[in-house]
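Predict the assembly for these two chains.
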Amino acid sequence: MIEKGIDCGSLIRSMGEAARSAAQVLAGAPSAQKAAALEAAAAAILADRDTILAANAEDMARGAANGLSPAMLDRLKLDPARLEAMAAGVEAVAHLRDPVGRIIDETLRPNGLVLQRVRVPLGVIGIIYESRPNVTADAAALGLMSGNAVILRGGSEAVHSNRALHAAFAAGLVAAGLPADAVQLVPTQDRAAVGAMLRAQGLIDIIIPRGGKGLVARVQDEARVPVLAHLDGINHLYIDGAADPAKAVELAVNAKMRRTGVCGATETILIDRAYGAPLAIVDALVKAGCEVRGDKGVAALSPHVDTASATDWDTEYLDAIVSIAMVDGLAGALAHIDAHSSRHTDAIVTEDAATAEHFLTGVDSAIVMHNASTQFADGGEFGLGAEIGIATGRLHARGPVALEGLTTYKWQVRGTGQVRP
Amino acid sequence: MIEKGIDCGSLIRSMGEAARSAAQVLAGAPSAQKAAALEAAAAAILADRDTILAANAEDMARGAANGLSPAMLDRLKLDPARLEAMAAGVEAVAHLRDPVGRIIDETLRPNGLVLQRVRVPLGVIGIIYESRPNVTADAAALGLMSGNAVILRGGSEAVHSNRALHAAFAAGLVAAGLPADAVQLVPTQDRAAVGAMLRAQGLIDIIIPRGGKGLVARVQDEARVPVLAHLDGINHLYIDGAADPAKAVELAVNAKMRRTGVCGATETILIDRAYGAPLAIVDALVKAGCEVRGDKGVAALSPHVDTASATDWDTEYLDAIVSIAMVDGLAGALAHIDAHSSRHTDAIVTEDAATAEHFLTGVDSAIVMHNASTQFADGGEFGLGAEIGIATGRLHARGPVALEGLTTYKWQVRGTGQVRP
């Protein structure tokens, strides 16, 4: 064990030093060169299709033998259509506007000093993730386009898929004349490597965990490097007394059922008592295949509704299950959301503009919505081109994180010899 | 010890819960109300002058008895002029532009959704600091004006001064109709209270340590709450071969000697061999009362120069001592800075615009300057009105942190019933 720890420590140190050197090159690389690397990587993904799919088949076979759940196997699986979508995603990132070098603001001081805040890359980003191999492509593409070096540590289930995808990025970087070390994949599944990444102060500038609660909790607990975490999405759809009933039904079904496994899915629907009995909403959800758990009032409406337990209001189902509670107007909704929301995405359905504004101001979540499905909580849908995750913390970046969220800024001060009195 | 730990844990929990409630009120408070609270607090500082100075005299007497150094006693000391400056500083913050509610950007999506990123307060800020009582006023003023609740934990040396100053803020809040719990002072000097603050996830949103290396290192090591740290300022002034000699001398003396105890003071001067022997610079520094430690070439210039040891290049003197090294042009300066800078503030003196731009781009520090004294590294000098510190990390805020750095944003999405296909 001690031997392993020492090996992982020096492994991560040498990877971190290589990443730092690569990051210095990337920080000064023009947008076109970074885009060329991504375009070459996308082309390599398509050209290496057979190799990547064969590697993925190996992971799938081992996963099936190890008894991975169908949901996990589905997340792991690549097929030609998914690979094409992945390559298209990498290409799309190459066409996003490069945030590096952008001037955030400029100030002329009375003493003649000119101050500019200029966007620069974060530096070296460590990504720790689980079974989905497309995180490899997303993280490499976003990290690289924003001028950062990335150190990827994927899950053991996807080890062959990740190696094959990583090779495409290494090829893309080299083709564009950039250092291959700008995108590195940790070559061991030893968990000590994760611990070494979490303690690599000075070598890794930020850790982004992507995965389930257990992974994120471990990262947050052990990390000495700053963490940009996305936690669970216990999202609410509040249907106000002034809601349009047709919109209410359509939004409830879409917010819950469009895809139940995404973090933007609604988990709890709150209904204003002034809206009246939500039988149409319950029926539409049941018809769409959703299990409904309601408070007493809702449970009394339909034989299809089970009574919710206290834990339901704090549960991220990520499944075709919804909890529904009646509340006393906006104040009741705000109190329930304040007590139970994970501060990811919460929405109101109402035709009353003033109530909507109170909700948008009063709910303290990364994303708040009026008359829109919580399923829109997604970097692509927000026009960011892609996302590396949806941050639920309050520091640095909040909500969908894409290129800008992977940068910081420096202050450039230009003078003519000013000294401070 | 266990008893103490439990007490501090529940103390911080109840303070955190009170702060959270106050933060919810503050988040929705109009700018004018927050400004009124600060104006009332500034008035109370002046009105309570005698009480505050008496409390400070008690701290000073105890500090002298406990053998505090003259420098520490000077940091602790309040007098009528310093109190007036403090009150004026609080008033000045009341007149700064409130960042809360500011729209960062707006996007209209093809599906008709309108997205806005809107600035909101961070929430509850914990400030852990050492002997300077003016941190109490700065942190309370900036925290409050940016809509945050603050929990202050000052050093034991300043306990009476801090209590008296805190009372002025409590009075100001109440006078403006805001909750007094928006600014709380931890009532115990038990170090377990600091530990409890560092682990108060969910109650404290960010910890800002202000103090020496030991304090900041402890906070960074123990904290489970995100930390906005300012570390040491090992700052460089690089005098390029194309520097104007008169500017070079004036900037070197000012950057090092204007005030030697501030984090923006220059600690190392790098001189391009093409500039020639820097005897005039050495002489001016010696004449200004500075001890000069040079590399071999510099030490050979003058009997007043000692030879620097290897540790000098990594030392923040915060004193009238400077290290000087000769380097080979810009590349030599960049290499030295990359190896030794604490990434706080680094400056170049040159008349060559292209060299200056290469320096400003190539040096990866929070603040980079051309033909200006590093002593300008200060929120007030940057036009931010004040500062809570100069952040040397890469996440969230970098360089001087004032009102905007104490906010985050939320995404507000406005639709007309859009569902995601």
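Residues 153 and 187 of chain A are 8 Å apart (CA to CA). The domain at 235-379 of chain A is CATH 3.40.309.10 (Aldehyde Dehydrogenase; Chain A, domain 2).
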